[in-house]
Amino acid sequence: MLHRSLKEDQRNGTTENDRLTLASRVRHLDVQPEYSRIDSEGEIQVSSPEELTQIADILRWATHIEILTIAWKPYVYIPTSWLEALQSTTSSIRKLYCDGLGLPDAEWRTLIAKWDRLRTVLVTHTSAEAQISPVDLLQVPDITFFNLPPRWHGDIPKDAANPGLKQVYLVISDDSNVEKGYREQFLSVQGRYLKTVYIAAEHSHAAINADTLPCMQQLAEHCPHLTNLIFIGPNMWTLPFECPLPPSITHLGLYSSKGQARDALWSHLFYSLCEMTGTDGQPLHLQVVRLLNPHLGTDLRMRLSRTKGELVYRYLAKIKYRLEDHDGWPIEFGPSVSGEPTGS
Prior knowledge:
Blueprint: H1 2-12, H2 16-19, E1 28-31, E2 37-38, E3 44-45, H3 49-61, E4 67-77, H4 80-87, E5 95-102, H5 105-114, E6 120-124, H6 134-137, E7 145-147, E8 167-172, H7 176-190, E9 196-201, H8 205-222, E10 228-233, E11 251-256, H9 263-275, E12 288-291, H10 294-306, E13 322-324
Parallel strand pairs: 1-4, 4-5, 5-6, 6-7, 7-8, 8-9, 9-10, 10-11, 11-12, 12-13
Antiparallel strand pairs: 2-3
Helix pairs in contact: 3-4, 7-8
């Protein structure tokens, strides 16, 4: 539909400005090709040549895109026609999200140098060779957030820190030994400016705390102004809430895509919050723990309303931190809830 409208607009225009009037109004472009068709032999078929051409046309015509989202799985490299179209766009892109679609780092470098208004970058589910290097992103003047790839080509210069970059997204995976060295290099340069770090867990509970501890120690060493930490995982069991935190953390967010948990896991969470310490035994300044999935707060409140002081919730009353739902309202043991949302 969008391609048809923009194409008609191209035909009807009498001047260059006329032709681009409609296309220039496109600010947010969300590209999700039909990548999951199955042929008669059971093989996954990517988009048709016609669809790829249409998307390339839209990328070329919509010269004032500010938010670009491209989601394409299974992972493939970006089509040549799209790359050529992106290279011809203006520098208006401010937010970039690519899921399952990659570029060689040299091609990314060319685009990043052109998109000098970028503020937010998130590239996920792609190969290490198709990630955007932090060496390039740190040079973008207005960058405020990006995800750190597990590895990259080249070293980050010691003087490459960007004071505007306050947030970063890290992934803890089974390849943690490789990640640790690259993460150390990045944090030693940029860490002093970071205030918020997101940590995504991509493996089982058995390994997550052991693999997360080195990351917490690095954050404690290099990020003196870090106050907000958000753990992200497919369910509560994969979140490393048993791990000691950097002592500067005041707000801890817990997000799992699964919006409920068993009583035993809630009890384990409360116990861990009671016993939580800072890295290397340092005093912890934690004030707030927030459940970021709205359904988790609902699930917990429902379970609390049904209990009459069962043993599994004995630790909740001992928590020294404020436990909140996603809106900032306190979650307390008992039928009543007091207080106001913190708004943090």
